[in-house]
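The protein record quoted for completeness.
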Amino acid sequence: MPTSQSSEPTKGLREQHRVQMALYRRCRRGLPDALRALLYRNGDRWYTAGLMISSDEAAAGEVMVAAWRSLLEQLCRLRFGGGVERRGWALVRATLAEDAGPREASRAVAAAANLTPDTAVAMPAELTGRLLAVADELAPRIRAAFEARDRVTTTLRGGLGLVAVVALTVAMWLLLMAGQAADSGVIWRCVRERVIAADMAGIIGDAHSEFAIFEERGQGSEVVLQQAGLILEEIANAPQAASPLVMGYLGDRSRAERLAEGMAELGERYSGAFGQDLLSVALILEEVEAW
C-alpha cells in the first residue's frame, strides 16, 4: 500500500508534464485551439497577478495584453527554448516589474501561480476578446516560424547524421577491439532520452530569459548557459547512436569550459523548481564530462 500511495503523486506529475509538453508543441505550431487553451489555462491567474500590483482593472488588462503579445511574438521566432507556460509567467513578471519593481512583481506572480483556477479573478469578457484577437493575428506567423525551424532542424539532422556515419566508420575497428560499443550505446541513449524528456535545452532558454529580465550577469553565467545549451542541443538533435569519439568530444568540451560546475553554481543561486531544473542540467553535464 505505501508503494501505491507514493506512486500517485509521481503519476500526477508525469501526467501534468505530458499535458504541458503537448500544449507546448501545439502552441509552437501556431494552432489556434492550442493558443486559446494556453490563455484559458493561465489567463485568469496572470490577470490576478496584475490586480495584485494595481487594483485598476484597466491597468491589469494592459499588463495582460503586453505580456500575451510578447509571448506570442517570441513564439514567432526561429528559436524558442523552454515551456510556453513558464515563459508566459516570466513575461507577466517582467511586465509587472517595469512599474512595481522585480521584488513586488515576483511576489505577485508567486501568489497568483499558487491559486487554483476557480479562486483567481476572471478576466473581463472584453479583455478576453482582445487577447484572442492577438492570438488569431499572430497564429499564422507562429506557424510559419515553426515550419522554417523544422526545415532547418531537418537539414541539421541530416548533416549530423553524415558526420556520425563518418565518425562511426573511422571508429568501428576501435569499438570492435575495445568491446565498448554496447556500453557506449546504452549510456548515450540514456543521457539523450533524459535530455529530450526534460527539455533541457528549454531550461537553458528559460535561464537566458530569467537573466535578461533581471539583468543578472557576471561570473561567466552567459558563457556557461550558451555553451551548455549548445552541447545539450547537439545531444538532443544527434542520432540515437553515437560513437565513443563523438561522446569524448562532447565530454572534452564540457570539461574545458567546466560547464557542470558552472551550472551547479547557477542552480544553487535559485530556490524552487527553477533552481532544481538548473541542477538537473548540471547532473547531466557531469555524466557528459565522465565520457
Notes: Residues 125-178 form the longest helix (54 residues). Residues 2-142 form one domain. DSSP finds twelve helices and no strands in the chain.
